[in-house]
Amino acid sequence: MSTIGAGATVRDCYHPVQWPSTNCPKVTFLPKGTAVHIICQRVGDLVYGTYGSSEVWDYVSVTVSGQTYEGLVADVNVYTGSNGLVADVCS
């Protein structure tokens, strides 16, 4: 399980399928410390965040107050304990 750094926006870059970026519609905002399950990872726009800069985006699943959300979060806003990939590449 990974956790959100200073807060992060979950984005829907799949309806329609598009390049991961901050232009994708917002699904929800996750506050600092929220635990997320990283399903897979893919490359997208370069983002600067809590843990530096990266083009890696994490497809996550998270349940907050009984509501489950899925979508992409910039990896630089997720503490994974690694600078590299920690999940399979999204297909």
How would you describe this structure in keywords?
two-stranded antiparallel sheet; 0% helix; five-stranded antiparallel sheet; mainly beta; globular; 91 residues; 7 strands
Describe the structure.
Strand 5 (about 50-65) and strand 6 form a beta hairpin. It contains no helices and seven strands. It is an all-beta fold and about 90 residues long. The protein has one domain. The protein has a five-stranded antiparallel beta sheet, with no helix packed on it. Strands 2-3 form a two-stranded antiparallel sheet. It has strands spanning about 1-5, 10, 25-30, 35-50, 50-65, 65-75, 80. The radius of gyration is 12 Å and the shape is globular. About 0% of the residues lie in helices and about 55% in strands.
